[in-house]
Amino acid sequence: xxxxxxxxxxxxxxxxxxxxxxxxxxxxxxxxxxxxxxxxxxxxxxxxxxxxxxxxxxxxxxxxxxxxxxxxxxxxxxxxxxxxxxxxxxxxxxxxxxxxxxxxxxxxxxxxxxxxxxxxxxxxxxxxxxxxxxxxxxxxxxxxxxxxxxxxxxxxxxxxxxxxxxxxxxxxxxxxxxxxxxxxxxxxxxxxxxxxxxxxxxxxxxxxxxxxxxxxxxxxxxxxxxxxxxxxxxxxxxxxxxxxxxxxxxxxxxxxxxxxxxxxxxxxxxxxxxxxxxxxxxxxxxxxxxxxxxxxxxxxxxxxxxxxxxxxxxxxxxxxxxxxxxxxxxxxxxxxxxxxxxxxxxxxxxxxxxxxxxxxxxxxxxxxxxxxxxxxxxxxxxxxxxxxxxxxxxxxxxxxxxxxxxxxxxxxxxxxxxxxxxxxxxxxxxxxxxxxxxxxxxxxxxxxxxxxxxxxxxxxxxxxxxxxxxxxxxxxxxxxxxxxxxxxxxxxxxxxxxxxxxxx
Length: 504
Fold this sequence. Notes:
The chain is α/β, with parallel strands linked by helices.
């Protein structure tokens, strides 16, 4: 009989020694089996964690609700459109065969000047005395004047009328207290660079100095935020009122780094949230948190007569906000369907639902462009059948508790399509309802641009002022007005004020 380690009965071991050796080997094998089982369990757990991590890293702006700012994080899978090309990309600039572009000729130039040859002819005659043969070439040049700050002294006089009454001249419009101050144009430039172009304060100061020769202080630039916000406060209230009267309102929210870097007790991150409610004509911001208290104070609570287009964040369904009519953002639904397709690569239903939903959005947009009352009934019925059939198949293929990362989320997505059918497809029957909250995402984009360029905003109050002004400027621009012009009007004390609709 042979044993491990080359031990055999011929080695002169007694029966008791052989039994002891066998027992020892059995115990060692049992320990090894237990260790193998332990390592196998640990390996399986690590495999699950690795799969979950890989799933999380695969989430991006194209297959989830993650913002585009997350796409460039280390290790994260970029969206399909951002993957590196296997073939060289096209060169920058105008591509071969593409239509060219140029400045348009104007039949009403601001200034017209005649140019004649100057100097002497080879014969010795002055060209100034030569015969004019008329215009042989025309050229229009678009130019701006050099910006140079000028200092103007205003002496306010007092006069006495013949009746004895005293009259004193007032300071010019936009003048500040004190003997010296900056004019309304430079004040408007400071606010414009900060709020509209997202220029950090220090760079704003340097830019104004290099462009105009004036040297405003950072305190002056900061102070202009609070001053402009106060001058546009009533307009902000009016815009909020107009949004509550709108038929459909898009809403969204995004994190914003504001205040001290150290988070408050009980919080994971030192950040606030910027909320937006908007239409094609109006923009209203509110700084707060992503909690119910902020949502209750926000304009959402007053949208009981409007259709609220949003990304399915749970607060929109809170009873404390009243009874809202919902349109769930189809752009978010489509991204989640793309994510489900990655979780179930062999399944047909994610693409079937996605294709049907995209086609419904296209048909609704087409009907709107063609000024039709709705989608063609036959086309609508066919697309709705495909969508609902895909949902039913998906529900039969999934469970609430999945074994793979992303399965539960895919199941919950299907349940949204099943249980909130009216909220998903409201745009199909009502062309006045936008299918996505893309308008809100566009109106939040300035906040992300500002954060990328300026980083953390130190003052919560100045941040509120900043977005109160931005709401004013954004609404004015949506109504076809010039941003600089409305800022200057506000600083002069007569901001643009939109009219309320006539009572019906």
